[in-house]
Amino acid sequence: MSCNNLRLGVNIDHVATVRNARGGAYPDPLRAAKLAEEAGADGITAHLREDRRHISDADIDGLMDVLTVPLNFEMAATEEMQKIALRHKPHAVCIVPEKREERTTEGGLEVAREENRLAHYIAPLRDAGCRVSIFIAADRAQIEAAHRIGAEVIELHTGAYCDAHAEGRLDERDRELESLREMSALARSLGLEVHAGHGLTYDTVKPIAAFPEVMELNIGHFLIGEAIFRGMTPAIEEMRRLMDEARA
Ligand code: PXP
After folding, report:
1. Which residues are annotated as catalytic?
2. What proportion of the chain, given as a percentage, has pLDDT over 90?
3. 219 CB under 6 A from ligand 1?
């Protein structure tokens, strides 16, 4: 655990992706989660997708049993997922949009379009003691709607900023960064806790980590990829170091 107030949540979905490529039990996402904990992760994130393409129901059972840091349970706003979340009562539930054909969570949730349904959907989760987070784009209307439905946390989607950086569209990257900055401040002014994530790497993490309103970053694909080259513990430690440096 770090001494500053920016938490690192490590997303272990892609350990399960590698496991599932062979249909067996190896590599075990629970082992990765425990290693991440030891390496300084402040929380573990896992996304139980409707098609179970990576994390399985048994993985969630196991994570709830073995973790000593909080589990951030990512899920779509479906009846099935609500039942699973209410059975486990994880520390946090992050509601994400989900499309079967997508490779990853491509955009933020359209909260404004479904305000009424989502308000009713998250109420029992909140009553059960879960911190409800809504994964959204850096967009004023979505943030205000997330506030109105009673979410305690928003997670800002950093994918467009990271993609623009990776593809060398630097003006666009800077515009995305600016809107993430403004919308973090807006969300905080409404009393929402601000998290961010998607696509973050060693090259893109620092400007986001430097926003004083951001309390948590959730990072997965890059860290699991980097673990192949330098090992899980050094991969996470380096991310933590960059986050601390940006925050200092
Ligand atoms: N936050 C949310 C809400 C996500 O859906 C994901 C991807 O599962 C992440 C963070 C992590 O994204 P990445 O794997 O690109 O680091």
Report:
1. 47, 74, 198
2. 93
3. yes
Which residue's alpha carbon is nearest to atom 6 within ligand 1? 198
Query: What's the pLDDT score for residue 1?
Result: 45
Give pLDDT tens digits for 72-122: 999 999 999 999 999 999 999 999 998 766 777 677 899 999 999 999 999
Report how far ligand 1's centroid is from the alpha carbon of 29 (Å): 16
For residues 247 and 216, is the Cβ–Cβ distance under 8 A? no
CATH number at residue 110: 3.20.20.70
2 is a domain residue: no
Mutate which of 7, 18, 105 for ligand 1? The one with the most ligand atoms within 8 Å of its CB, which is 105
Q: Does the CB atom of residue 153 touch ligand 1 within 6 A? A: no
**Which atom of ligand 1 is nearest the CA belonging to 47?**
8
For the full predicted model, state whether its pTM sits above 0.90. Answer: yes
Q: Ligand 1 pocket test: which of 156, 218, 219 has the largest number of ligand atoms within 8 Å of its C-beta?
A: 218
Ligand 1 within 6 A of CB of 155: yes
Token pair of 238, please?
A: 């380096």
pLDDT tens-place string over residues 146-163: 999 999 999 999 999 999
Number of domains in the chain: 1
Tokens for 57, please give them: 């129901």
Domain that holds residue 193: 7-247
